[in-house]
Each structure stands twice: as C-alpha cells, then as structure tokens.
Amino acid sequence: MLNRVPFNEALLSTVGTPKQAKLLDSSPRSRVWRVQLTDGRLVIVKQITDDGDAGADANTRFAREVAGLRLAGRASGPAVAPAVLATDPPSRVMVLEHVDDLGKTDDWMPGYAESLARLHALTGPADAGALPVWSGPTATDAESFLTLARALDVPVPSTVPDELAGLLERLDPTPHHALLHGDPCPGNDLRTADGVRFVDLERASLGNGLIELAYFRIGFPTCWCAMSVTGAPLTEVEDVYRTTWRGLTGQDVPGDLADACAAWLIQGDALVERAHRGTVDQLARVPAEDFEWGNASARERLVHRLGVVADMTRDHDHLHAVGRLSSDLADRLLVSWPKLRPLPTQDARPWF
Description:
This protein is 37% helix and 14% strand. It has twelve helices and eleven strands. The relative contact order is 0.12. The model has no long low-confidence stretch (mean pLDDT 94).
C-alpha cells in the first residue's frame, strides 16, 4: 500500500515507530510521506522508486541524494537542507528531518540566493569524488544549436563554432568543487525562520556555482515554472550570492556568468522535463513544433534565453559572435511566431 511507510526493523529501532503517515505530492521518481512517530516527532520519509523508465538510475539517485544531503549537513549556522536521520539503502529509503515551511512570501529571492551560495560553499577540492561532477553541454549540443540556426535560415557568423568550442573548454567542471543542488527550483526551496533549506538533491553534483546562480537570468531552466528576473531584483540577488560566497570563502566567485548562461542556452534538454531528457534532439524539434512544459513553451523559453545571452555578450571577449547569433535567432523566432509570450515574472512563482 502506498500509504504504508517502508520501515524495516533497523529503521524502527533507529528512528522509532510510525503512528500516522500522509503521502505527499512528489515526482514520479519518488514517494514521500510526512510521518508522525509514536513519541510525537515528525519526520519525512522518502523512497526513491524504480517505477517505469525512472527505475534505471534509482540506486544512483538515492546514493547521490544522500551524499548531497550529508555534505549539506556540514553547514555551520542555519542549515541549508534537512538532516539525514537514517537510511535503508536496499529499499532506497531515507528518513529526514521534518522542516516547517513558512510558505508564500513576496520577497523570496534574496534568502534563496543566500542559501544557495552557502550550499555551494560547503565543499572544496578535498571532496572530489564525493559526488559526480556537473554534466554540462557537449559538442553535440553546440552542433545542434548551429543546426537550429541553419534550419531557421539565420546566418551563422564564421567565428561562432570556435567560440562555442572555447565555451565548452571553459565550462570544464574539473577545477570547481561547489556543491550544486542540481534542480534548485520553486518547491525545492523551503522557507524557514532561519533561512531557506533545499530539498530533493537527487541530481546533486560538484561544479561551478555560477551554473545555478545563472537560474535567475536564464529563466530557471530545469523547472516547469519558468520565470524572468530583471532589473533591481536581479541585481540584488546576484549581489547577495556573491557577497555571501565571498564572506564564506574569502574569494570572488570564479568563472563567467555569461558562460553559465550560454551553457543553458545550447542545451536542448533544458527545454523539457527530466523524463524526456536524453531521448531526442530537442532543439531540432523547435522549427516544427512548439512543445509545452509547465507554464511556458519551448520557443518561449528559448527566446528568453537567447535574449539573455545576447544582452550579456555584446562586449564579451569570447562570446561576441554567439551573442550576435543569439540576437538574430530571437528576432527570427519572434517574427515567425509573433504570439510568443514573455516568461512570467518572479512575482508569479508558484507556492506549494
């Protein structure tokens, strides 16, 4: 039964006996319960499932999330993730601290940015191998981006292929060891009295924190609820992130935010939900169909990303031609499909 909490004898002796359990909404890749124990304590029980196509990497996702949560547990001061209370690896069950979510707030982004920087700053070179390295765009993604331009009859400047090759080299995650969440989307951030805590670290990895700071500019690329953040709110959250990182590490954030945004732009898989990633060339679908995901279509997401990269690279030393191409592609999409809508603003974020 789905509402029966999967506790074995070891969990019962370690954590306690469930008295009541409520099955919560979650992705098809897991089952999550809020459980009251016989001693009155509340805990969260999460089981990574192997149902359907999601099962191929269920054990990996379980190990990855537990490792990410335990690394996140290093935080001094306010926590940035729930504590891991116990695990049952054969059943892919983890018992987590229950976190009270304060719910909706209008000014949600500064606290999110601060906790994101604190999460990223928890790991360093000594943690190499504790999690997989971040998996970014590949040469195949770069070629798909160029093929999209040709399919839309947008001329490709001669220096773009070399700029994209340089981008892929600069995106090498090897020198970076920030603890990346992997999917820091609305709903995976819980607002507490002590700050934001992140949940659902199934895609945790080690890499450059700018990849996730880029979410604000590039429209939350792994999230069904795409959003546009601009102007003073964008400046504030990026300043909060950089100031927090500098205070914790004594150094400026390494890397180039324009590179991080371009990385998300050329990845077609960032146009679809996780279940459909790695199946087909998603950018190749764009000229023929405008497929929906959440609150925005693929073309709407793409126009936003193109505009962001175009704006960031007007005077960029290494991505100037990519920026010109991005601007031309955005114009072509808007001329071809004039009813495309801008992404919703951050004020429209959903609350769960």
